[in-house]
Amino acid sequence: MTAASAAARPGPGPAPEPTVRQVTEDLVLVEIGDRKVLAAARCPHRQGRLKFGRVDGDRLRITCPLHYSTFDLASGERTSGPACDTLRVLDALPEHLAAAPPPTPGDTPHGAAS
Ligand code: FES
Q1: Residue 77: which CATH number?
Q2: Which pTM does this prediction carry?
Q3: What is the pLDDT of residues 27-48, one digit of tens each?
Q4: Residue 110 Cβ < 6 Å to ligand 1
Q5: Mean pLDDT confidence for 9-27
Q6: Is 85 in the pocket of ligand 1 (CB under 6 A)?
Q7: Where are the alpha helices (DSSP H) in 1-114?
Q8: Best residue among 45, 63, 85, 86 to mutate for probing ligand 1, ranked by most atoms within 8 Å of CB
Q9: Given strand 19-22, what is the order of strands in its sheet?
Q10: SS3 21
Q11: With a 6 A CB cut-off, is 64 part of the ligand 1 pocket?
Q12: Domain total in the chain
């Protein structure tokens, strides 16, 4: 069974795999099942690209791929990792962002591939 078919299957079973996608230059959309959270695209520590972050859907947290700061996606508070400001998070999803394009091949956590 693929992750996509598991996500579409109703009833009990494994939770759908969380996804992170870039929706504007400044924002990523984190989807954990039906929950959608908009967050800053860049980590407040040293600007790591959170579209490559690891999401813990059970704890509603995202971990930056560069130095592994972890942020609560409900409050934006850093829960571990290097000291830095709070991650900007928004719970509401503006309609015009719902149909954002899929990720661009070649993107990396450090910037676009050359
Ligand atoms: S840039 Fe995100 S933890 Fe350092």
Answers
A1: 2.102.10.10
A2: 0.73
A3: 999 999 889 999 999 999 999 9
A4: no
A5: 81
A6: no
A7: 3-8
A8: 45
A9: 19-22, 27-32, 35-40, 89-90
A10: strand
A11: yes
A12: 1
